[in-house]
Write a structure and sequence with these properties.
single chain; alpha+beta; rod-shaped
């Protein structure tokens, strides 16, 4: 590798001169060019915007993804430009364990069937939460972080360049004052004019960027409004899901032989006798099913319902089903009978 010794020495000398200059400015023994009050106000607003935006983004990400390990993992995948892994939410894990426990205790028992039912709706809540996290990131945290990574970084870069131009200008002013011969005075003044021109131009560029912070605030306001709308929609959907779950549990507690105040079914024989007398049979739902019209029941996988033939002549596709006070047709292919 070739080394340019003269260039290295020159750069080292310039660096030492810069350190000396900045030290003299701090001690007040050297002149320092001050920026106008309007520029200083713009810079203060930009600094406040940067600092508070960083805090808000960190807090929002902590709310959306409470697990710091997951946040670090997402950050790494973002930096290496790879797709983030799909992970279940805590509510979905809770729902899976409830369903598994319900199957172990027995879907035919009041407690087991209730566990399965609650687990299924907890999974719905978890999916709703995941959708909310994705929507909130898209409308709020991602635009705010993009602002920090683009506009703010550009402003800081131009501000640092302006500081370099200011130091060059002040150095030229010092050289003009120290010039003792008429031969050195014109050259120093020429360098001063060039430095002043470059400083003024850079100050104007930086000021234009700082004035653009106002437009960024307007964009952040729109992001904030979208975030609030997304949050309101999320909580409204959660309320709907839990209200539906309460209604489902109330209908399950009204089934024959089931004591709503007991966690398990205390009267299995009485239930089975009544089922037999009514010609109804217990069946487990294999897959989720959305009723096509008001004559059909909507089903959820693993729930237990009561069924019988629609009429004396069996229908190849449908059965008559009951779930608490809810009644309607159910597809035969979605059920398996329980002995």
């Amino acid at each position: 590798m070739d080394f340019n010794v003269k260039k290295i020495v020159k750069d080292a000398g310039a660096a030492i001169s810069r350190v000396v200059q900045m030290t003299e400015e701090k001690l007040g023994t050297s002149e320092k060019t001050e920026l106008d009050a309007h520029f200083e106000n713009l810079w203060e607003r930009a600094e406040n915007t940067k600092n508070w935006t960083e805090k808000i983004v960190r807090d929002a990400e902590a709310v959306l993804i409470p697990n710091p390990g997951n946040r670090i993992e997402d950050f790494i995948y973002e930096k290496i430009d790879k797709k983030r892994p799909s992970r279940l939410s805590n509510l979905e894990y809770l729902g899976l364990d409830m369903i598994e426990a319900g199957n172990v205790f027995g879907p035919g028992t009041a407690y087991g069937s209730c566990l399965i039912k609650v687990g299924q709706w907890e999974q719905k809540l978890g999916q709703n939460e995941r959708d909310f996290i994705g929507s909130a990131a898209m409308c709020f945290t991602q635009p705010m972080r993009k602002f920090l990574d683009t506009e703010i970084k550009t402003i800081l870069k131009e501000k640092n360049l302006l500081e370099v131009k200011r130091l060059d200008l002040d150095a030229c002013k010092n050289r003009v004052r120290k010039a003792r011969s008429m031969l050195g005075q014109p050259a120093a003044e020429r360098d001063l004019r060039i430095a002043q021109s470059e400083f003024d131009r850079q100050a104007e560029i930086t000021k234009l960027l700082l004035e653009g912070i106002g437009s960024s605030h307007a964009a952040h306001l729109r992001c904030l409004q979208e975030f609030v709308e997304t949050q309101a929609r999320f909580y409204s959907q959660c309320t709907t899901i839990m209200t539906d779950l309460q209604r489902e549990l109330a209908s399950m507690s009204s089934m024959p032989g089931v004591d709503p105040n007991s966690p398990i079914n205390p009267k299995p024989n009485e239930w089975n006798n009544e089922v037999s007398n009514n010609g109804m049979r217990k069946a487990r739902v294999i897959y989720d099913y959305d009723g096509q019209d008001t004559t059909e029941l909507s089903l959820m996988a693993n729930e237990i319902i009561m069924v019988k033939e629609l009429s004396d002549k069996p229908n190849e596709d449908y059965l008559y089903g009951e779930r608490g006070h809810q009644k309607g047709k159910v597809p035969r292919a979605y059920l398996e009978f329980i002995s």
